[in-house]
Amino acid sequence: xxxxELRVWHWMINTFDDHHxxxxxxxxxxxxxxxxxxxxxxxxxxxNTTCTFSVCASDGHVVxxxxxxxxxxxxxxxxxxxSNLLAQCGICxxxxxxxxxPDQDALRNEFLGEEATKNRHLKREEAALETARLSxxxxxxxxxxxxxxxxxxxxxxxxxxWHDSFLIQSNTxxxxxx
Length: 178
Hints:
This protein has five helices and four strands. It is of the alpha+beta class.
């Protein structure tokens, strides 16, 4: 990968953190021609055709492909071939300009649909709440432990008959009321 592709790959991994982002995978790995007399011709033509990135679900199903054109660009013929082929297979295809990457949610919506993006946001919120809950639980446990230790130190440092200083009688001079 060149430096632009590497930067886009990191962006793609962040965008599709719940999917696998494969690099330069031949389209023949996830497409196949119909069984007819031209299938060998199509296979020979497509075996060297790759997409810069392929986004796969955890079951290996490809949901979308991305091309990052080189400095001299992507030929119209190659773009049309990939676009038509992948559309027939129900796979989204996008050509990204590394200097102007789209909104991450927009690309997720195009590849996975809006429902998947909403579910991702809900999962992130749930994870953030769980992290906050665990942090609060840990902090409360620490504070309770500190308070218990302080109470033990305070109790052990006081004389035995001074457990509650407000209830101790004063044995100084008795005084009469007049």
